[in-house]
Amino acid sequence: MRDVVFLGSAKAELIAFPVTARHMAGRQLMLVQLGREPVDWKPMTTIGPGAAEIRVSDATGAYRVIYVAKFKDTVFVLRCFKKTSQKTSRRDLDVAIARYRLIAEQ
């Protein structure tokens, strides 16, 4: 099982999700840790190679977890947020890109 490393405020962002959405996102991250695909996800090539987005929804809205799992031993969680429009906001993308660059430089 791979380790999960939260970059920046990603862990606090995930903890701020409502309980149901947080549990769903956590289960999906566990699948990624085990080398499997989440139930609902899409690649996020605008962020960088290997970046993907877990998509979960509950009664309060849609939530996203952007992560990178292309490394052998670690899953990096870049950004967690509530989706407020059809398109991912520029701010959320910029934060994820900046955090992606931190791991790409290593």
Structural class: alpha+beta
Mean residue pLDDT: 95
Helix tally equals 3
Oligomer: single chain
CATH fold group: YaeB-like fold
- The CATH architecture category equals 2-Layer Sandwich
Helicity, as a percent range: 25-40%
Give a brief description.
34% of the residues lie in helices and 31% in strands.
Which labels suit this protein?
alpha+beta, 34% helix, 106 residues, YaeB-like fold, 5-stranded mixed sheet, 3 helices
Q: How would you portray this structure in words?
A:
- This protein has 106 residues and is α+β, with helices and mostly antiparallel strands.
- It has a single domain, classed as YaeB-like fold, CATH 3.30.2310.
- It is built from three helices and five strands, in the order E-H-H-E-E-E-E-H.
- It has helices at residues 10-15, 19-33, 90-104, and strands spanning 3-6, 41-43, 51-58, 61-68, 74-83.
- A five-stranded mixed beta sheet has the order 1-5-4-3-2, sandwiched between helices.
- The two termini are 21 Å apart.
- The relative contact order is 0.22.
- The mean pLDDT is 95.
Write the layout of secondary structure elements.
Layout: E1 3-6, H1 10-15, H2 19-33, E2 41-43, E3 51-58, E4 61-68, E5 74-83, H3 90-104
Parallel strand pairs: 1-5
Antiparallel strand pairs: 2-3, 3-4, 4-5
